[in-house]
Structures are given as structure tokens and as C-alpha cells.
Amino acid sequence: MNERRHLLKSLASLGLATPLVSLATPLSQTPSSAPSAQLSALRYRISGPDHFPPSFNPLTGNPLTTRADVVQGIKDLYLPLTPYYSRGGARVRLDMAGAMFDQTAADLEGFARPLWGLAPLAIGGGADFVDWDIFRRGLANGTDPEHTEYWGACTDRDQRMVELAAIGFALTLIPHILWQPQTEQAKRNIAAYLQNAYARSYINNNWMFFRLMIGLGLQSMVEPVDKSLMADYAQQISAYYMGQGWYQDGAFRRADHYVAFAFNFYALIYSRLGSAMPGAERFRQRAKELAPEFIHWFAEDGAALPFGRSLTYRFACASYWSALAFADEPVLPWGQIKGLVLRHLRWWSKQPIAHRDGILSLGYAYPNQQIVETYSSACSPYWAFKVFAFMALPETHPFWTSKEEALPQFNTPATLPHPGMVIFHPGGDSIALCGGQEENKPWMRLGAEKYSKFAYSAHYGFGVETIANQFDAAGLDNMLGFSTDGLHFRVRESNQQVRIADQLIYACWAADEDIRIETWLIPASPWHLRIHRIRSGKTCQVHEGGFAIARNPGDQALQISGASCMQTPTDISGIIDLGSSIRREGRVIESVPNSNLIYPRASIPQLCCTIRPGETILQAAILVLGDPKTGRQAWNQVPTAPSISELEYIIRNRSVAVTLMKN
Fold first, then answer.
1. Is the pLDDT of residue 195 over 90?
2. Number of continuous H segments (helices) and E segments (strands) in the chain
């Protein structure tokens, strides 16, 4: 009873307990399914003939500055899903493309993931467009072993656990909508289903938080909860903590957006709704520490740094900031937190991220199956609804009453020793120089491209290699590629050593058993410098790429000995040699269509050479800017490269090992 009272106090302090029923849709007046006229109008606005070129985005035209704007945005994102619910309400099926889990689990994704945003909206007000009866029926039928839409019992490490975290969250926030109206038999089925899932074994990474979220849901249902299981996972999660809010995502050299939109998102939700639960206070304090470093992952216009896996979750990238608001933790001024969330949503409102019927696509800034993971189904993108946790806040909350603020001025590059990055912000971008993380595990699609490039940009994204045996067609943006036969090629996939000093990264890696490389990365805004010392036992072709930019007819290309540059009306990207030990030729390559996350057609400047057995030194300066005039001026002021002996001294005397590389 005391624990239940404590939970209610937590809800009340968030402004959730007293107005719950009054702000949510009255149960006796549940709305019907979305009127077809609203849905038809939305689809027409997205892709109708009077709106050419089509936006392919339900958020198009929404200013996303007020709470009412965001309510409308959630409605416009959610309504396209409504025709695809099954008759029993337990499943949403959008297509028949496969993922690594079964189709039923994919259907459950479509049912559960919107709850990350709809449940907070029901608390804060504005969810009157939601047919909550569908969710009540779906929850009852999906957990009923006798029903044709039964989700199937959870086994160990089951994808269903991912989706039950959203259901546990929703049951904690809105039990009066999802739980209390259920029949006694339905309650027994729901409780039994969640109890079974709660006791199962989860993958030893961010998944362990799913047990904690399910536990919150069971507690809100006044069901027995074995807290020793929560305490066990809380302790195991802590073992992956590196410092400054950063976690290692399991037994892998990986620290990506999951640190923010999984580990610390759940930590803030859990500590707010279950402040007396095992590990809650420790999680809350650690989550607050991430803000001063994670803010560097965002550009002035709201774009996030695309780095790592699961980028098809799109605006979930800002859900950490949303969770800080939900948890009432202003670790930054409220105006800055508000700006980080709303600018991010506005950036996404300008990208063609949906199909013509308004359903979110797989991909990033446009539909693109080539960059998604093996665990992504057609319903997976709706994890993006996690960003709407802040909609639990009423308009009187300081988040809404504060004036939106821009990012602070970043006068010097930020050195992040835990993930192994140095981030700087030329032209309002966010560019991360990266020591390299993922060890290219067999289950990871395109791990080298997602984790081991030398640089990543919020404005220009990154590319993936979609043709494995045509070296001359490889884009290799911000990579160094080696080929001995002109067809197959190798790039950095893992590291033997990574060290970091103030504004300097050093990595030792191998392309294969005969090619060893040492790389130094240095910011020199708006440029950055790369120096490679290669020791090769064989002759091979070597290509090094700069940043990709959008390709258009009439673009101007510079392709000369020692330099390559592409200029468009809006952007400039170039790479220039800084005195390598071998001559390199510049060229601009048109990347394979749909290989870049942001631009379906892109151009990439490269430097190319052939090296012989022995030692080769490659040195280059790389530039990308969204202002061609400033870029041309910078092109005439190329920085010089420091000597390798100077760099070796700094690494030997002033550096530390990147935390991820210690395991």
C-alpha cells in the first residue's frame, strides 16, 4: 500500500494524478475511428496533385512551436495507422516484408509503439482523437491465449519484450483508460501475460530496462512484483556505465543513440514513475550528466548527428531531452530543452519520411531499405513516438511557458573520451571525428559505415556501400578504402587501439593482415585534418573520401592532382592533399543512388592513389559547408598538418584510452 501511495505521489508531482480523468477522453464518450474525411484530407495534403511536389510528410506546414501544434502533429502522424488495425485491435500490419522476428511480433510493434506518445498526450490533454477502445480491446485480445489475435507467450530474449515496455509505460500513466475498464477475465490474462514476460531473460544491453518498465506497469495494476528481479537488472545495467551519462550498450564497443533514447530515456521515466524502485535515484543522477556532452550531437537547425544503428527511429533521437522534461529535470535552461526538442521536430517536418498514405517509412531522411537493421519491420519507425513524452506536461509547465532558446555558442571543439569523439560545429553543423567503435559483429548490417568512419555530420549524413565488388564505384565518404584487385575492398571495421587527447584522436587499425594503419584526426574548423601512416606488405589501390553532398544538374566539380571539390548552389565539399609521401589524384564520384542517409543522389570528393609495399604517409584536409561563398574563402586558407612526431608526443604524454576500448 505504501509503495502504491508513493507511486501516486510521483504522478501527482508530475502534475498527473489529480487531472488524469478530467484531461483524458471520458471512458463513456470514447471517440469512433478517425473519420475518413480527415484521413483523406491528410493524405491529399501529403501527396495530392495540388501539392506538388508532394511532401510525403504528415508534419508538413506545421510550425511546431506551441503545444497545440504538437498535438496536431501527433494526430497527423497517428491517424494514417488507424485503417490498418485488425478487427480485434491487437495487431497492426503495414506490409509483408520480413524482419528477424516473427510477423506477430511485428504486428505487436504497430499496436504498442504509438503508446509512447499517445499515453503522455492522454495525461497532458489533447488525445481526444484516439479511439481508446481499440487499445483496450487489443490489449485484452492480444493477451488472451484463446483469441485468434493472441500475441503468443514471451520466451527468453523475445522481441515482444521490447513492445511490452511501451505497454508497461502506458499502463503506469493511464491505468484508468487501459486497465480499470477491463473485465476480470481480461485483467487476469493481461496480468499473467506481463508476469511471464517480466520473469524472462532479456538481452544483456539496453533491453534490461524493459523488465523495469514492465514492472512499473504491473505495480500500477496492483499486481505482485518480485523486486529482486528489478534490483538484479538495475545492478547489471550499472555495470555498463562508463561515466558522464554514457553507457556501453552491452558487451560491444558501441555507444550510440541508444545511450540517449534507450538507457537514459528509460532511466528518467523509471526514476520519475518509480522513484522508490531499485536503482531509480542512481539512474536519475547519471542521466542528468549526459546533457553537456550530448547537446553537441545536434546542429543549429535541429538535425541530430546520424551515427550508429536504428536511425529509422528518427525523432526518437531527441527523446532524451523530452524525458528530461517529463522527469522535471532542467539540467539545461528550460528554453534550451524546449528548443532542442521542437527544432528537432521541425527539421523532421521538412524531410520526405512517409509514404503517400502518411505511414512512416523505413529509412532516415527518405524511404530507404538499404540502411535499416535486420530487426526493423514496417512498424518499427513508430518508436519515434518516444519523443512525445514531454506532452504529459500541461501548458502551464515551465517547458511551455519558457521562450525557446537557440543552442549555446560552441567556441571550441568538445572532446568526448567515453564514446571516442571530438565534435565541432562549423557553419552550424555538428561534425564528429570518430575513433571507431563497432567491431563489425556478424549480426550488424553495415557496421563499418555506421560506426567506423572518420567523420559524421548532422547535415550531410553518411553513406553505406551497397555494391561490395566494384571498388571504383565505392563512395567511401570519410573512409579509407584498400583494394588489391580493383573489385573487392576493405575499410576500417575495428580498432586495435584508440586514444584521445584534447582535440585529437589516434587510432591503430588494420585493413587486413598485411595492411596496418595509424590514423590521427584533428579539428581545424571549418576543416578537419586526417593523417594516416600505412605499413603495407603489398601493392594496392587506396581511395579516401570527403563528405557527400546532394547532387544536382549543373554542379561544379574540381578534379585535379592533389585536390577534389564539389560545389552546388547551397553546399561545398572538398578534400585536399597536404603533402603525402605519394601523389594522389582528385576525383568526384557520383555515389550509388539511395546509399546516403539524407540525399538519395549524392556526390563525394575523393583522393586516389596506388601504394607499394612499405610505409606510406597520407595527409589531407577535409571541408564541408552549407555556404559556398564561405567555403571558397576557406579553400584559400587551408591549414597545415602537424608533424607525426608532434602528434606522437601528444598521444604518448597527454592522451587517455577511449573508454569503449578498455573492454
1. yes
2. 22, 20
pTM for this entry: 0.94
Rounded CA-CA distance 159/103 in Å is 11
Which CATH number do you get for residue 157? 1.50.10
When divided into structural domains, the chain yields a total of 2
Question: In 431-526, which ranges are E strands?
Answer: 431-434, 455-457, 480-483, 497-501, 504-512, 515-524
Backbone angles phi, psi at 580, to 5 degrees: -65, 165
The answer, yes or no, to whether the previous bond of 642 is cis (omega within 30 of 0) is no
pLDDT exceeds 90 at position 13: no
* Whether residue 446 sits in one domain with residue 319: no
User: Tell me, what CATH number does 459's domain have?
Assistant: 2.70.98
In a domain, 87, yes or no: yes
Q: How far apart are CA 255 and CA 246, in angstroms?
A: 7
Instruction: Let me know whether 9 and 41 are in one domain.
Output: yes
Instruction: Give the residue from 50, 52, 32, 30 showing the smallest Cα distance to 41.
Output: 50
Question: Which candidate, 315, 316, 309, places its Cα nearest to that of 255?
Answer: 309
Q: What is the pLDDT of residues 250-290, one digit of tens each?
A: 888 899 999 999 999 999 999 999 988 999 999 999 999 99
Is 101 domain-assigned?
A: yes
| Domain end (from 339, 374, 401) | 401
| Dihedral over Cα of 99, 102, 105, 110: its sign | positive
Q: In which domain, by residue range, is 46 found?
A: 2-401
pLDDT at 25 over 50: no
Q: What pLDDT is attached to residue 15?
A: 38
pLDDT at 244 over 80: yes
Residue 409 lies in a domain: no
